[in-house]
Amino acid sequence: MWKWEAEGNAKAVIVIVHGAMEHHGRYGWLIEMFRLAGFHVVMGDLPGQGMTTRADRGHIDSFSEYTIEIKDWIQAAYQFDLPIFLLGHSMGGLASIRLLQQEKLKIAGLILSSPCLGLVKYPSRMMSLISLLLNKVAPRVRVNSGLTVDVATRNAEVREIDSNDTLYITKVSIRWYRELVVATKNAFEDIAKTQDLPLLLMQGGGDLVVDKKMVKTWFNMVPLSEKRYKEWPEFYHEIFNEPDREEVFEYTKDFINSQLKAIGYIV
What we know:
Elements lengths: L1 E3 L7 E6 L10 H9 L2 E5 L20 H14 L6 E6 L1 H12 L6 E5 L11 H13 L4 E3 L4 H4 L3 H8 L7 E3 H16 L9 E6 L7 H10 L5 E6 L12 H18 L5
Parallel strand pairs: 2-3, 2-4, 4-5, 5-8, 8-9
Antiparallel strand pairs: 1-3, 6-7
Helix pairs in contact: 2-3, 3-7, 4-7
């Protein structure tokens, strides 16, 4: 886990949760933008990803490993004694949802970026059946994730960096995949348990990874007092890495500032 302090007086703390295959190092631009805008940032690498391991990259035994880790980051953010906003991207968004369906935490708002609530492409029925068997007898067997830098973002600069990133995961374990499927299902089944927080959900209109129809369905179903949906037309999966990402950041910042004003903080 790492902490980056704001430039000048801080208004709030942003806890960022990255997605599958990636790590905190891919969020340098976003972290710096938040810092310059007056926010502390707390972030780490999720279990099985980034700098957390070498032997078990792309593997978890249980999806709860993610929620436990995120809760630790939030608890670390409490030390600043400022409002906290949880920002989860893709699988990190799904993990954030699952955490807030299992616990009630002291945070001021939830921001979801293309949350993994369904995939555009699933394995064939035969492969799915095989994965169920392997999950019992050989859960650590790894398979190609099928994700490439080209489907994540249209940003050529980011694509170039990713193609040379040794921490970027290309294979995941059978257990990881089965845990993802179950977590996605549970996010819908436990939707009534979701902590009532102000929500900003942003989705790429041209997402080739996450099924935006399932994302919109979940958004329409979740029983929150205040929620806002924003779809960015033609944007790929990683909206904070797209060529026009400054627009996404400004929209996110406006949401955070409006929530801070609503709870009496001067921004």
